[in-house]
Design goal:
0% strand
Length: 92
């Protein structure tokens, strides 16, 4: 389950950095399908499988938010703190 959670956060961060919010729903559907297939193959019970699916969907969303914030921080314009001065000097 830890592997799925870490993978979900990383995959969500990649989605958040490069795509808009509309890509999150198909990403969650693909992840849920993959997790369900692996869980059934491993013989997980329905309760364990439901828990893993919920955790992976939540980790994808958390990663998406982190990736979106990172993209906003990287692409934000640099604000200069230098005060522009006129060509006139105030000293006598």
């Amino acid at each position: 389950m830890v592997t799925f959670t870490i993978g979900g956060v990383l995959f969500g961060a990649l989605l958040g950095m490069y795509f808009r919010a509309l890509v999150l729903a198909p990403g969650i559907l693909i992840a849920v399908a993959a997790v369900t297939a692996v869980g059934i193959g491993d013989g997980d019970g329905p309760k364990a499988l439901a828990l893993i699916v919920i955790v992976v969907a939540a980790s994808l969303q958390a990663g998406y938010i982190a990736g979106s914030v990172l993209r906003a921080m990287v692409s934000a314009p640099h604000v200069s703190r230098v005060v522009p001065t006129s060509g006139f000097s105030t000293s006598a």
